[in-house]
C-alpha cells in the first residue's frame, strides 16, 4: 500500500478546487541543470542507461524535490521509450538530440509496428513508477507521461530531431492513409502505456504534444488532436486510469485551446506565447491551465524572475485551476538557485493573491 498524500495542491488545482497557494512543478525538473543529475547520469553511462534502470530513474526523479518545494514529481523517463520498444533503436549522441537506427518511412516498416508489451519491453518504466511511488512516501503526487501520437510519429518518421519534421508532414499530404495507420498504432500504444503507468501508481497523466504547433488548424485537428482525443477516451474506459486527471500540452497551439478543452481532459498546458487571461477565456472554465513562464526568464536575475512569476500569476488571477509551470522544459544553463527563487515566489505570491 502506498502512503496517503500529504500535499494535494497539484491534484486539487487540476480539479479546479481552491488551494492555499498555487502549485508549481517544472517541465524537465530532473535534468542537466542539476549537478547531482549529471553525476548520476555519469554513473549510468548514458541517458538510456539512466532511464532504463529503475533505481537510477527513481534517484533522479527525487533530486529536484530535495532542493525545491515542488508540488509534484514527474517520472524520469522519455517520450521516445515507446518507439524504442517498437524496435526503432534509440540512441542519444553526446550533446545532441535523439537518433533512431531504423526510422519508419514506408508501408513495409509501418505494417510491422505493434503495440509494445507493457510487462515486457516497457516493464522498466512501470518498475520505476512503482519504486518512485514507494520512495515518495506520499510527499507529492507522481505524474506519468507519454508523447502524443503526432509527436512520436514526428521523431519516428524523421529518425531524429528537426525544426519542421517535414518528412512526416510530406507523408500526411502524399500518403495520408499511411500516416493515419501510423498514428492509429501510436494512439493504441500511448493509451496502453498511460494505462499501465496508472496501474503502476502514477497519480496524474500528461501527454506531450511538443510538435502539434507545427500544423495548421485543419491538419492539427486531423493528425494531432483526433489521436489525443482517442487516447483520452481509452483512458476514460479504464477503471483505474479514468480516475486520474489528464493534462494535454500542445506547444505552440494557443489557437486550438477551445477545441482541446472539449476532449475530456482535466487540464491544458500552455506555452508563453499566449496570455493566461486569454487562455482562460478560450477554455471557458472547462479545464485547468498549466503554465506558462518563458523558460529563458530563468536566465535573468532573481528580481526579474520574481517580477515575471508574479505577472504570470496575475494573468491567471485569483481563480481556482492554475498549476504554475514553465511554458516548455528548463534548459541546462539555468542556475538551480534561480529555480528556488521561482518556486518560493510562486508559493508566497500565490498565497497573497488569495487573501487580496
Ligand atoms: O520533466 C522531467 O523531468 C521528466 C523527464 C523527461 C525527459 N524528457 C528527460 C530527458 C520528459 C517529460 C521528457 C519529454 C520529452 N523528451 C519531450 C517532450 C517535452 C518537450 O521537451 O517538448 C521530447 C520532445 C523528448 C525527446 C528528447 N529527449 C529530446 C529531443 C532530447 C534531447 C534534447 C535534450 O534536451 O538533450 C531528449 C533527452 C532527454 N530527455 C534529456 C532529459 C533529462 C537530456 C538527456 C541527457 O541527460 O543528456
TrEMBL record:
Highest taxon in the source lineage: Bacteria
Reaction it catalyzes: uroporphyrinogen III + 4 H(+) = coproporphyrinogen III + 4 CO2
Subcellular location, principal: cytoplasm
Keyword Lyase appears in the UniProt entry: yes
Subcellular location: Cytoplasm
Molecular function terms, GO-annotated: uroporphyrinogen decarboxylase activity
SUPFAM superfamilies, sorted: UROD/MetE-like
Positions with a binding annotation for substrate: 28-32, 78, 155, 210, 328
Lyase listed as a keyword: yes
Main EC class the enzyme belongs to: lyase
NCBIfam families found in the cross-reference section: hemE
Subunit structure: Homodimer.
Protein name per UniProt: Uroporphyrinogen decarboxylase
Gene source species: Dyella ginsengisoli
Gene name as annotated: hemE
Amino acid at each position: 500500500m502506498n502512503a496517503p498524500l500529504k500535499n494535494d495542491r497539484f491534484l486539487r488545482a487540476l480539479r479546479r478546487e481552491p488551494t492555499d497557494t498555487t502549485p508549481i512543478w517544472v517541465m524537465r525538473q530532473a535534468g542537466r541543470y542539476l549537478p547531482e543529475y549529471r553525476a548520476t547520469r555519469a554513473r549510468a553511462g548514458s541517458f538510456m542507461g539512466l532511464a532504463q534502470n529503475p533505481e537510477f530513474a527513481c534517484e533522479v526523479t527525487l533530486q529536484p524535490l530535495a532542493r525545491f518545494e515542488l508540488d509534484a514529481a514527474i517520472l524520469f523517463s522519455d517520450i521516445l521509450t515507446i518507439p524504442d520498444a517498437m524496435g526503432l533503436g534509440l540512441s542519444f549522441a553526446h550533446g545532441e538530440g535523439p537518433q533512431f537506427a531504423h526510422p519508419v518511412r514506408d508501408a513495409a516498416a509501418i505494417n510491422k509496428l505493434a503495440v509494445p508489451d507493457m510487462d515486457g519491453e516497457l516493464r522498466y518504466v512501470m518498475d520505476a513508477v512503482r519504486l518512485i511511488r514507494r520512495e515518495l512516501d506520499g510527499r507529492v503526487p507522481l505524474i506519468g507521461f507519454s508523447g502524443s501520437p503526432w509527436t512520436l510519429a514526428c521523431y519516428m518518421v524523421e529518425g531524429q530531431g528537426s525544426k519542421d519534421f517535414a518528412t512526416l508532414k510530406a507523408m500526411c499530404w502524399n500518403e495520408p492513409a499511411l500516416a493515419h495507420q501510423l498514428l492509429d498504432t501510436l494512439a493504441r500504444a500511448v493509451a496502453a502505456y498511460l494505462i499501465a503507468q496508472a496501474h503502476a501508481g502514477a497519480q496524474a497523466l500528461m501527454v506531450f504534444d511538443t510538435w502539434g504547433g507545427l500544423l495548421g488548424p485543419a491538419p492539427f485537428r486531423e493528425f494531432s488532436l483526433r489521436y489525443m482525443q482517442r487516447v483520452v477516451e481509452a483512458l476514460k474506459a479504464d477503471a483505474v486510469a479514468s480516475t486520474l486527471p489528464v493534462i494535454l500540452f500542445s506547444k505552440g497551439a494557443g489557437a486550438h485551446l477551445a477545441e482541446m478543452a472539449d476532449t475530456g481532459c482535466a487540464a491544458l498546458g500552455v506555452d508563453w506565447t499566449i496570455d493566461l487571461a486569454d487562455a482562460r477565456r478560450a477554455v471557458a472554465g472547462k479545464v485547468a491551465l498549466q503554465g506558462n513562464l518563458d523558460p529563458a526568464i530563468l536566465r535573468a536575475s532573481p528580481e526579474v524572475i520574481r517580477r515575471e512569476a508574479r505577472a504570470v500569476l496575475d494573468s491567471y488571477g485569483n481563480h481556482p485551476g492554475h498549476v504554475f509551470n514553465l511554458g516548455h522544459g528548463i534548459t541546462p544553463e539555468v542556475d538551480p538557485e534561480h529555480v528556488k527563487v521561482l518556486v518560493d515566489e510562486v508559493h508566497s505570491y500565490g498565497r497573497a493573491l488569495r487573501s487580496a
